[in-house]
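User: I'm writing a tutorial on reading structure tokens. Could you give me a worked example: one chain, its sequence, then its tokens, then a sentence or two explaining what the tokens reveal?
Assistant: Sure. Here is the example chain.
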Amino acid sequence: MSLDVKKIRSQFPCLDQKINGKDLIYLDNAASTLKPLKVINALNQHYSKETSNIHRGVHTLSEQGTVKYEESRRTIQKFIGAEFDHEVIFTKGTTDALNLLANSFGDAFLEPGDEILLSTMEHHSNIVPWQLIAEKKGAIIKEVPINKKGEIILDEYKKLLNKRTKMVSIVYISNSLGTINPIKEMIQMAHEVGAYFCVDAAQAVAHKKIDVQELDCDFLAFSGHKIYGPTGIGVLYGKQDLLNQMPPYQGGGDMIDAVSFEKTTYNTLPFKFEAGTPHIAGAICLKDAIDYVTELGLEEIEKYENELLDYATKKIKEIEGITLIGEADQKCSVLAFCLENSHPHDVGTLLDKQGIAVRTGHHCTQPLMKFFNIVASIRASFSIYNTKEEVDTFIEAIKKTKEFL
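And here are its predicted structure tokens:
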């Protein structure tokens, strides 16, 4: 079964508008995907008819909300292949999940001299939290290098692994390059020296099927807004035994068992890590987003997006003065490039005048930009509602922009 892209496009109302007099072509999906009616309607339903706090009330709306909230958790458990639903922790997003992990894991496991491995291509959200906890605990950050194609150098990674390595935290798919990293192999190599492994799956979750038990990762994080869901909601997956050993990240309602001024005891998983009133609507509607992707089929999504990427890559290489940033053998959904003698922001602005939304800048990956000796790049990223016709318009717009500049 192939994707019915025309039908898919009709389900995303944001596409039905003009920007600067032109039909919107949205190529900023790596930053945030658009939302289908299924998710929009679910959000509207919650705020219109079902608003209530969860877990604490005995009235009908509270009980209904609690049921839906926990149904979403079980849907996510199934979607990522977790063994238990309480291994799914709701967070504000990938950044929040990684901060939670760095702080709680660091408090429980890190000792002076321990090493944390991060790659050159990591998002700042997978660098800074580890730097903060490393400084606090006396741990050491080591950089896993990449080659000029934008691929992790596995031989160098293997050399860095040793008995002092406590955590490896690596992106599954690079948000700046589209590189698909050999995560399963890297996890196995880390486990051989007794290290734990966290997967930043923010970019991967909407493009590839993920099974945390098959990967055998210890932790995994992703955001709802990258997979057609609401902003402000995300997930941290962790193996049960590790989460049980980690202290709470924040204090407040729902994460407590009993509170007194003499001593406070903490709730069981997953609530130990979900202090305060959560983003209830976001968590509930993340289920609708995941259901939507599941109905389409991730295998079909991956196949279609790869066709788009191959088509766009071939077309853009025909333009003189274009330098592609990242040409890994295994890539997904992202086309990053620079245009000679032009600042990426100028290119992005002129593309916007033609109704085309792309991302320009360092994409929260400044170490990666430094590696490629650039300050910024232009990034077009593709999704299920993009078409080859849009790619053609995009390519012509780049040519016009080049002429103008």
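What the tokens reveal: The chain has a mean pLDDT of 96. The first strand starts at residue 18 and ends at 19.
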